[in-house]
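Slack export, channel: ligand-projects

TW: morning all. Re-posting the request from yesterday since it got buried. We need the structure predicted with the small molecule present, not the apo form. The ligand is fe (ii) ion; the SMILES is in the block with the sequence. No rush, but it would help planning for next week.
GE: picking it up
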Amino acid sequence: MALLTEPSFQHGQPSRVGILLVNLGTPAAPTAAAVRRYLAQFLADPRVVEIPRLIWWPILHGIILRVRPQKSAAKYASIWTPDGSPLRYHTEQQARYLRGYLGERGIQVEVAHAMRYGDPSIADVWQQLRQQGCDRILLMPLYPQYAGSTTATAVDEVARLLLRTRNQPALRIVKHYHDDPGYIDALAAHIRQYWQQRGRAEKLVMSFHGVPKRTLLRGDPYHCECHKTARLLAERLGLSKAEYVVTFQSRFGKAEWLQPYTEPTVISLAQQGVKNIQVICPGFVSDCLETLEEIALEVKQAFLDAGGKDFAYIPCLNDNPAWLNALADICQRHLQGWDTGAPDMAALSTQRTAALELGASD
Ligand SMILES: C=CC1=C(C)c2cc3[nH]c(cc4nc(cc5[nH]c(cc1n2)c(C)c5CCC(=O)O)C(CCC(=O)O)=C4C)c(C)c3C=C
Ligand SMILES: [Fe+2]
Ligand SMILES: [Fe+2]
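GE: finished. pasting the full token output, ligand included:
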């Protein structure tokens, strides 16, 4: 394996810090061809589909990549915007805002975003950061809850680049932020604001993306982290156990996934006489196919068909200022000790302690 050609660092050259935001990725266009390219890369990842290659390859290439792209492309077409795929648009915006928020705090860093599957690729963006002089990089996968099938695949990709790098940058990784108070508070404030404008439903459904149940049995913390997020959010909103339900959506394949599944749950709620529900997807910080099509269209229809009257989908945090502030806080905490031109949090508290020791009042 050849080493990558690296920018040559000169003595005395300013060394910079880079933040690399990563999200899952999305097709380049809502067409069968583009969706096939995207799914071929995504579903070939052994962390995403943990079936031996000898068995999985004929299924993927012989069946799934022949049938699914057409169907998925029609779904993508229903949520596509003039700015392209919602996931790509929101991720770009988040990177732009994060740069601004950190800049306002006097933190001088490069902020870039990449997609694990599709474009802009982690490899290309990583190389750009290196060319900008970044010798310290904070990798921030945008998934609040850690899963082997999401967070770990972003780390794998960076690890593959490091394997080929002569002069490796320092690397820090945000593993997860499922219980970060800023993220929980932003979600709670976002929901409260929604309630103020449109009222409250009988039930709040917190729907997370599913994963195969066997990943939980093999030690993946994702399920527990989703439940912790839900519990903290419910506490912050003052919801009793009867007022909300945690579900898992987007099942893929025949194996059992985390339960309860979102769609059968809302159908059963309607059948029990629950007339109005609101759905929030706290595991997605950007709206995407799984929220805008699966929840806001498909699951809504299933609820109404089963006798429900009012269904509302509460959008993701997207460019919500409280969320972007929380994102900036999470990054800032992980940058501590790396000189970014801003007073360090640790340095500030040392100064404060010293001042207190000298008798200054708090
Ligand atoms: C939020 C976390 C996510 C987890 C965990 C996750 C696991 C996971 N997903 C699949 C299969 C598919 N997911 C698809 C879309 C998709 N998934 C996530 C997030 C998580 N996935 C997002 C943000 C998106 C939307 C992308 C977009 O372009 O808007 C798709 C593609 C769409 C389709 O054809 O249905 C598939 C397939 C598996 C197998 C898995 C865990 C093992
Ligand atoms: Fe997914
Ligand atoms: Fe889906």
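GE: first-pass observations. The first strand starts at residue 16 and ends at 23. Residues 24, 26, 48-49, 68, 72, 85, 87, 143, 147, 149-150, 209, 211-212, 250, 252, 283-284, 288-290 surround L6N33NVT (ligand 1) (CB under 6 Å).
TW: perfect, thank you
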